[in-house]
User: Fold this.
Amino acid sequence: MAGSIDAIRNAILAGAPGEELAALDLPETVTAAFVRKDEQDMFEGLESSTKDPRKSLHVDEVDLPPLGPNECLVAVMASAINFNTVWTSTFEPLSTFLFLERYGQESDLGARHDLDYHIVGSDASGVVLRTGPGVTRWKVGDEVTVHCNYVDMEAPEGHNDSMIDPNQRIWGFESNFGGMSEIAMVKANQLMPKPTHMTWEEAACLGLVSSTSYRMLVGSHGANMKQGDVVLIWGATGGLGGFACQYVLNGGGVPIGVVSSKEKAEILNATGVEHVIDRKADAYEFWSEGKQNAKEQRRFGKRVRELAGEDPDIVFEHPGRSTFGTSVFVTKKGGTIVTCASTSGYMHEYDNRYLWMHLKKIIGSHFANYKEAWEANRLAYLGKIHPILSETYPLTEVGEAAYQVHQNLHRGKIGIRVLAPEDGLGVANPELRARHIDSMRVFRKFSD
Ligand code: NDP
Assistant:
């Protein structure tokens, strides 16, 4: 018999134990946010900035997918917008249906993902509802956050670092059944314990960007930051940058945050970042007439030196084409540029003399393996890292939320309430929350 999602939601809100949740029938369909294959060409010929996620993201009923081995169904209390939902909903740089088709050709289980709709979302917090064959570490009723490294680990290549696995995917971007759904399907090795002092919407912001920033700065595959390192962080109040600043402060480094407004500069100062560059106010023009402007790069480098007293040991890169040449230029001799993205364009140009003569390194980084995501989540659990959550929207307004991020109108993270009826729910340990609030600048500024 088909169950009701409201019964599941009410049971979770009432704190029902796992046995009670396991006894509830699942619904045959759930509400989810998705893009449609028959609309993948809808923005063809338009400027990137005019491609509007509000037109391409739909919220409607979809079938609940069949559960396979080592998979779990999670009742999603909250999710969060990541830039990859912007890419999916603007069909840039390519349609994500190509990923689903490729996955569909790989195996019978992969074929479940090759549908004419793609459920988006690479973050979630919620409660385990069902476990598939082979799942031993998680049980119905566990409160979890979900990270988005979607990998089986069958291939030998991934066993030192699962991000190298040839079949590694990003959940909700290169797979279907993402987090913007009342019930999401995940692999068991995506699950992590939800920090007990956080609300559902806070915990939903941890998976993707916190883990990515952790690998880029702290993990041994990234820039391996050490105490005292000066770290230049682009987009320092954005999704990645907000966490990057906290990792630098926690690790005894010196962050220099770059932002584009006075309000964002104030947020940074309030969260403990002393050195801030407002790139709009200072009006840097790193490119003029299709060429990089060395004079402007020097002006920027001079400002960085004025603030920190030295050049950055590490530059935290993701804007890409607009800033990459400047990042290579300003990095300290022997320093590291660590990059995970190219928001403004992926064909980078830089003056290679500054790289080889000054013995700098460029490190490519992409999400995080399970261990790195786990360590990042543990730091959140310990109250050392906290999301900069500026707004939340209900699932029905996911298009507007993605639009805000696409247009760079947001600060930090935007959360999405899925089954959570309101903000502020899900705090299992209020005493711990009170203790962390007391000790954390980010909490004080944003949470209460
Ligand atoms: P956000 O939009 O939340 O933040 C990015 C910030 O970068 C913006 O707020 C803006 O800050 C700054 N920025 C944007 N364009 C420029 C530019 N041309 N020059 C200088 N600064 C710029 O996005 P996220 O931090 O979540 O993600 C950033 C990028 O990283 C995206 O492309 C995303 O897809 C990618 N990504 C990749 C991951 C991976 O695993 N490979 C994981 C996570 C994200 P301001 O205007 O204040 O300067």
Summary: The chain is about 30% helix and 20% strand. The mean pLDDT is 96.
